[in-house]
TrEMBL record:
Gene3D superfamilies linked: Glutaredoxin (3.40.30.10)
Signal sequence, start to end: 1-21
Species in which this protein is naturally found: Algibacter lectus
Protein name stated in the entry: Thioredoxin domain-containing protein
Keywords attached to this entry: Signal
PROSITE patterns for this protein: PROKAR_LIPOPROTEIN, THIOREDOXIN_2
Domain Thioredoxin: 334-474
InterPro entries: Thioredoxin-like_sf (IPR036249), Thioredoxin_domain (IPR013766)
Presence of the UniProt keyword Transcription in the record: no
Magnesium as UniProt keyword: no
Length: 474
């Protein structure tokens, strides 16, 4: 397969040279690739939140596609629930090869445009590590925190200068990398005040240097070219949350201070999005994201109706409105005292049963996806500890992916998670909607009468075991 893939790279290189020799127009680019262990038979190519085309894989799990009416910039290719961002420029002939069992880490580019995209991919992977480090740095004072971020930023810039010295890079690519570095830096600063309690947050805001957020004066909240850019979206989410938090503290009840679960805070956040962002795609994405997040955490009908009404008044997206209403209706059916919906689950020996048949006593139901691999591992390690501590409780884990059951089975086996009570849904899309599975950490506690005790908890929540013990002691 590698030999054939290399031959295709040579063919594309020759084709690219011919095109240059004939001085053809630059309004096109090629993209192709090979997918090992595909989860479906298509690749979806997108740009600016719009689908350009759905491309079929051939019998060897490859594809080759010419983008006509091409414009340079950021594109996204999707396969199953996985996706990756690429940079395409005129006359590029970009190929990639990946294995779905290890999507990002196995991905490699060849052909014209490959060096830039391999560098961009490495930046994406390194950024994950940076985010983890930033969380640890938030315990530092503002000056020390800024010093750490400055050091990371300078290291990233130095790395790019080294790459640039060895390779010809376009102005567009250089601008993209610098935007990535800057917006990652800005997003990290925006997350700094988010601590556990109000007294800490108030103190942080008081001690911040006047120029801590000086970069805000030059922010473009409606940069169409960065719509698909992860660092840019991370900044926007962090920024509107920070601004809303500051406003929230001015008028919320000091004795009842909350962040994520607070109606007041979330209304402030939707207001910030509505006032700062005019680009319809970006605005809708953020409004929808935070409305769903609040609905998934709320167990108060009045608050649910208030946030729903507020969202519907701010969005013009008909599809988004329908999806939010359906999500809210699903959440309302999962309140304490209700029964689980009738859904078929299947074990890894291909035996099927109804979801409620798993409940013969106190039962905890969690979910996972290959898309959120870190959560998959951390949640299963947590479940193993809980199983040892509470042997009288049945702990169930369900994979929600709509593709490649063997991939889920392989993930469980390769990590040693073979203790039983592992299932997948027969109809994943139907089940995900019916159980309103968002976020992935969502957890159900069910009593021996097969009734929902808590349909909105989380095994990582500090009071989760208190909730569980409270049910066991009844």
């Amino acid at each position: 397969m590698r030999v054939l893939f290399s031959i295709l790279s040579i063919v594309l290189l020759i084709s690219s040279c011919k095109n240059s020799a004939h001085n053809e127009s630059d309004d096109f680019a090629y993209i192709g690739g090979e997918i090992i262990n595909p989860t479906e038979n298509t690749i979806i190519l997108e740009s600016k939140n719009k689908t350009i085309d759905t491309i079929k894989l051939d019998g060897r799990n490859r594809f080759f596609y010419k983008i006509d009416n091409f414009y340079p910039g950021i594109y996204t290719f999707r396969h199953g629930s996985e996706y990756q961002m690429i940079m395409l420029e005129p006359n590029d002939s970009l190929l990639f090869r990946l294995n779905t069992f290890d999507f990002d880490e196995s991905l490699v580019y060849t052909g014209r445009g490959a060096k830039q995209n391999n560098f961009l991919l490495n930046e994406f992977l390194e950024n994950k590590k940076t985010e983890q480090a930033v969380r640890r740095f938030r315990s530092l004072n503002p000056q020390a925190f800024t010093s750490k971020l400055d050091s990371i930023k300078q290291s990233q810039i130095a790395q790019f200068k080294k790459f640039k010295k060895k390779n010809d890079v376009s102005d567009a690519f250089e601008n993209l990398i610098l935007q990535h570095i800057n917006y990652s830096y800005y997003a990290s600063k925006e997350t700094y005040p988010f601590r556990s309690n109000r007294n800490q947050i108030e103190e942080i805001f008081k001690t911040l240097p006047k120029d801590f957020y000086a970069y805000r004066n030059n922010i473009d909240y409606n940069n169409a070219k960065l719509k698909d850019f992860i660092a840019y979206k991370w900044f926007l989410k962090s920024n509107v949350s920070n601004l809303a938090l500051n406003e929230h503290m001015d008028h919320c009840n000091k004795d009842d201070f909350k962040k994520g679960r607070s109606l007041c805070f979330n209304l402030d956040r939707l207001k910030q999005i509505d006032s700062l962002i005019s680009d319809k795609g970006l605005k809708e994405e953020l409004l929808y994201h935070y409305t769903v997040k609040f609905l998934s955490l709320s167990d108060d009908t009045d608050e649910t109706n208030t946030i729903l009404k507020n969202y519907l008044a701010k969005t013009e997206n008909v599809k988004g409105k329908k999806m939010i209403i359906n999500f809210a209706e699903a959440v309302s059916k999962l309140n304490a005292g209700n029964s689980l919906p009738n859904l078929d689950i299947v074990d890894y020996k291909n035996n099927s049963k109804d979801l409620s048949d798993l409940v013969n006593g106190t039962t905890v139901i969690t979910f996972w996806s290959n898309t959120y691999y870190d959560h998959f591992k951390s949640s299963h390690h947590k479940l193993n500890r809980l199983k040892s501590k509470y042997p009288e409780v049945t702990f169930v884990s369900i994979n929600i992916d709509s593709y490649n059951v063997n991939k889920a089975k392989r993930a469980l086996q390769s990590n040693g998670f073979v203790s039983g009570n592992e299932y997948f849904f027969k109809s994943p899309k139907l089940a995900t909607e019916a159980l309103a599975i968002h976020p992935m950490t969502k957890t159900f506690i069910i009593n021996k009468n097969k009734k929902i005790v808590n349909g909105n908890t989380n095994i990582f929540y500090g009071k989760f075991e208190e909730q569980l013990v409270g049910l066991l002691n009844k």
